[in-house]
Amino acid sequence: MAENCGVVRHSLTGRRLAASIALLVLPVMGGMAAARADEAAALPVADAIVRPTTFTLDNGLEIVVIEDHRAPIVTHMVWYRTGAADDPQGKSGIAHFFEHLMFKGTKKVPAGEFDRLLSQNGGRGNAFTTHDYTAYYQDVAADRLDLVMRLEADRMANLAMDAGQVDPERQVILEERRMRTDNQPSGQFAEQMSAAQFLSHPYRLPVIGWAQEIAGLTQADAEAYYTTHYAPNNAILVVAGDVKPQEVLKLARRHYGVLAKRTLAPRKWVEEAPQRAARQVVMQDARVREPSWARVWTAPGYIWGDTARAPALDVLSSILGGGATSRLHRALVVDQGLAASAGAAYSGDDRGPATFQVYASPRNGHSLAEVAAAMEKEIARVIADGVTEEELARAKRSLIADLIYARDDHDTIARMFGAGLATGLTVDQILDWPRQIAAVDAAAVKAAAAAVLIPEHSVTGILEPKPAS
What we know:
Distance between the termini: 37 Å
Structural class: alpha+beta
Strand content: 15-25%
Number of helices: 17
């Protein structure tokens, strides 16, 4: 498939349910080296994130400019506040389908010309769809910013679609689904876990869509989605790299400022029903080589629910599963030798309900039951006894250090601000995240664990080989 689409879930701290589900069948990678964390700890928390310059055009387009003059390159990103959770009922996958169609050309720029011009000018581009947003980006030399702005602004308002493009692209997406989900046990398992996790919230739907609903998507559906969601007042422009804010503003006014705003419908999602009983998903497949176990809870985040608990849950996730020094790795992998891998993940910056999960894969000679029992013991221990001051300090250093070192990649910082703003955070809230993490104490972590890690509120997933008949 051409490098112009993707189905992903991103997070301010790099942890999401769909991404971490894949880790159920892979060894957990180590966290940041202690030396890096200690080095970062010497930097003021206030300096962890570079403050961007922001503007808003008359048509409602928000602009974020992040200066980084170390190399003559720039990342240009347009984020739309629409994703798979906005798919109309019975039309799952339309957000992702439309992302594909955005590469089919306009009256001024025929199909294929966008990619040709980008490549000819030494750039590269891509796009991705999540439940919360859809984003398009290009990495180019700084003196080619005018070009990519012109191309991106053109397709924001002037996309041309016809049946000759729509029908074949639908088949491309169905094939993408077969390759990434239907033919992959881990992909099927992740999909079933999400469907079990949420009874009514649209996060239960796969970003790529259900196959039978993809097959029914039409050109009219795509055109309706375009006119409903793609407008400058529903978008955020993020430019990071070797640029000056006023130069970016001048170019943005020239290309984006001439586009008309649209009347947007309120972004309303179905609220999730309360969970009153534990759920379990068991999947067997002959293609599975290594069994895996996971337990997931719906949790508050920085935007949804009891937001005051979100920083403590980020810290708890790092303590339980943040690499080789984490509790779960030490207990299950090193000390007891039961698991080949073990970890935790938290998706605190989802626009809707967040998730907190723990996961592990048993080592050869040990069973899923042994791993599950050991995992439940560790969860019970953190609820009853909390965490140590040493664990707390190490986790906070690691989280803030990860963010500080991310400043070396302006693409990562651009994604952080784009994703945060697209889900409902403000620039000040994003900048305040390191201070919130630094302020977390052991009592807050223990209270968050007790409030969230409730057995009746969990979904347990088991993926294992199918026994020979």
